């Protein structure tokens, strides 16, 4: 499985956090940290967990603009691509 996609999503979220401010900055950083943790695990996260992350990222995309928005959208795309390769559902 391409855990690299989760690593890439985490890094893009770190970029987004640097470009964001206020509450969005902390929420983006928290998502970045969570995805980095998932990427480091040998076990593949399930669809439900990935869907929850994608929902939060969709909310964050709506709350941000400019470079932060673009980075969040890129990260969400990477999580979506990763999720397509997860068995089940």
Key terms:
single chain, 89 residues, mainly alpha, 4 helices, globular
Q: What layout of secondary structure does this protein have?
A:
Elements: H1 4-19, H2 22-40, H3 47-63, H4 66-84
Helix pairs in contact: 1-2, 1-4, 2-3, 3-4
Task: Provide an overview of this structure.
This protein is an all-alpha fold and 89 residues long. It has one domain. Helix content is 80%, strand content 0%. The chain contains four helices and no strands. The chain has helices spanning 4-19, 22-40, 47-63, 66-84. The longest helix has 19 residues, at 22-40. It is globular and about 35 Å long. The chain starts with a helix and ends in a 5-residue tail after the last helix. 31% of the residues are buried.
Structure, briefly:
This protein is mostly helical. The protein is built from 4 helices and no strands.
Mean pLDDT: 94
- The number of helical elements comes to 4
Q: What's the β-strand tally? A: 0
Number of domains: 1
The computed structural class is mainly alpha
The first-to-last residue Cα distance is: 17 Å
CA-based shape: globular
Bin the helical content.
over 70%
Major sheet: none
Strand percent estimate: under 5%
Radius of gyration: 12 Å
Topology order in helix (H) and strand (E) letters = HHHH
Low-confidence parts lasting 5 or more residues at pLDDT below 50?
A: none
């Amino acid at each position: 499985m391409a855990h690299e996609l989760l690593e890439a999503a985490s890094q893009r979220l770190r970029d987004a956090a640097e470009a964001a401010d206020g509450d969005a900055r902390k929420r983006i950083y928290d998502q970045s940290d969570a995805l980095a943790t998932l990427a480091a695990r040998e076990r593949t996260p399930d669809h439900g967990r990935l869907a929850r992350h994608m929902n939060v990222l969709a909310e964050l995309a709506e709350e941000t603009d400019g470079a932060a928005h673009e980075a969040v959208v890129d990260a969400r795309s990477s999580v979506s691509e990763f999720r397509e390769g997860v068995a089940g559902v």
